[in-house]
Design brief:
Elements: H1 2-20, H2 24-27, E1 39-40, E2 48-52, E3 55-60, E4 63-67, E5 72-75, E6 82-83, E7 91-95, E8 98-103, E9 106-111, E10 116-120, H3 126-133, E11 143-145, H4 151-169, H5 182-196, E12 199-201
Antiparallel strand pairs: 1-5, 2-3, 3-4, 4-5, 6-10, 7-8, 8-9, 9-10, 11-12
Helix pairs in contact: 1-3, 4-5
């Protein structure tokens, strides 16, 4: 029942994002999420390959794969695995001082030092925290690629700049109960970061 509740809330949030952002269609080009056991013939060249606990994994669009002779098979996200980016559609929330990210039934923590995302167990109280995100106003800085950045690079740059802006301003536009005056600091850092990476921002 709890899982159904989270799925429903995430679907609602996805619709809100699609209505709010002109990039909605472009950001969903990852190919979709699949259940463990799903098989595909091949992966795009921009997939991420890594070794975790002496096993090879392949990551793309929020899905983790094992390679077989004639296909790739979706597997559950291995705890402790690290990936360089998250696919569109993720939700972020705080549990105490920690900021978690949730997408495709998987929880991640952002590592500011290593600049990647680590798969973690579901934290206690995560369902309520996810439910609260659906009631918060969504605000964002709009950035357009001025140097032909790929969709994957756009998402990575946006996530990195968002994390940096939150760290520098102590303000997260996705969270409630914060000092509204800090939103100007968040926006200033976010814009400077994105412009420095070759985006036109408004």
């Amino acid at each position: 029942m709890k899982q159904h509740r989270v799925v429903l809330l995430l679907s609602l949030l996805a619709l809100m994002l699609a209505a709010h952002s002109g990039r909605a269609d472009h950001r969903n080009e990852g190919g979709g999420f699949f259940q463990p056991g799903h098989r595909i013939g091949g992966l795009p060249s921009r997939h991420h390959h890594f070794v975790h606990q002496k096993q090879d994994y392949y990551y793309f669009g929020g899905n983790f794969f094992h390679r077989h002779p004639n296909h790739y098979e979706v597997v559950r996200a291995p705890l402790g695995a690290r990936v360089p980016y998250l696919p569109p559609g993720y939700v972020s929330f705080h549990m105490g001082p920690r900021q978690y990210f949730y997408v495709n039934y998987t929880y991640f923590l952002w590592d500011y030092h290593r600049r990647d995302y680590m798969v973690v167990r579901e934290p206690i109280g995560a369902a309520d925290a996810l439910a609260a995100t659906a009631t918060r106003p969504f605000r964002e800085v709009y950035a357009y690629p001025a140097q032909g950045q790929s969709a994957q690079q756009q998402d990575r740059d946006y996530y990195d700049c968002h994390a940096w802006a939150v760290e520098q301003s102590d303000y997260d536009p996705g969270m409630g109960g914060q000092n509204p005056y800090r939103s100007r600091d968040y926006r200033r850092v976010m814009i400077a970061c994105l412009e420095g990476r070759g985006y036109s921002v408004r």
